[in-house]
Amino acid sequence: MIVADRKSLEEILSMIKDYKNIMVLGCKGCVTVCNVGGEKEVSILASALRIARQKEGREINIDTKVIERQCDNEYVAQLKETVGNYEAVVSMACGVGPQFLSEAYREQKFYPAVNTTFFGGAVTHGIWEERCAGCGTCIIHDFDGLCPVARCAKSLLHGPCGGSSKGKCEISKETICIWDSIVSKKMEQGRLNDLLKVRAVKDWRTARDGGPRRSIREELTQ
Ligand code: SF4
Ligand code: SF4
């Protein structure tokens, strides 16, 4: 899923400092799963903004709403009757959501309440880790299901850099060296020689380096 973190209250307050009538809009997709922008978080942010404005002695009206997915025009269209009732909308979806909103409602102003961070998952309650960089050509079958593109700090594809120590990456003691994990797993399986294979150069055109990407499924476009 897409993982995100909420922006600080100060940053959000600064973005909406000129408005008295806003909507805080959540999303039931990834940001609900990672506890950043679902029903509960929308309600908490709205309360925090009201209290902060009260302390400043300034009025604010905040309505809240949570739609199924902000990255889907079908659900974005449900805001057609109400989105114009506000001076601005604060989106608690990942960075995709406010862009779909902005494209659908050109006259409205949208502000992101979260910082979108990575594709990953929860390794334990309250801790999420990155697993995929969306490179567009998955090659993890060559590395026993572990991704050096997303998880090696240097995205090395032909072996470790030599900087790892006790299984940790040289960038920090908290970060595992994914190459240590790849090599260990290959050794456990008696397949270390797999890594001697000369790999073709990775085609990065399918990654973000090739510009914004599109995915077309012809059978669904009919
Ligand atoms: S190889 Fe690319 S698509 Fe596969 S997990 Fe890594 S970043 Fe994601
Ligand atoms: S220490 Fe390991 S994970 Fe860190 S940059 Fe080097 S090879 Fe990559």
Task: Give your account of this protein's structure.
The chain has two domains: 2-117, 3-Layer(aba) Sandwich (Rossmann fold); 133-207, no CATH class. A hairpin with a 2-residue loop joins strand 6 (114-124) and strand 7 (127-132). The protein is elongated. Helix content is 27%, strand content 19%. With 222 residues, the protein is an alpha/beta fold. The longest helix has 18 residues, at 39-56. The strands form two sheets. It has a four-stranded parallel β-sheet with strand order 3-2-4-5, with helices on both faces. The chain has a three-stranded antiparallel β-sheet with strand order 1-6-7.
Features:
4-stranded parallel sheet, Rossmann fold, alpha/beta, 3-stranded antiparallel sheet, 7 strands
Q: Give helix and strand order, one letter per element, not per position.
A: EHEHHEHEHEEEHHH
Number of strands: 7
CATH architecture of the largest domain: 3-Layer(aba) Sandwich
Spans of at least 5 consecutive residues whose pLDDT stays below 50 are: none
Shape assignment: elongated
Intertermini distance: 28 Å
Strand content: 15-25%
Largest sheet: 4 strands, parallel
Ligand names: iron/sulfur cluster
Q: Please tell me the total number of domains.
A: 2
Radius of gyration based on Cα positions: 22 Å
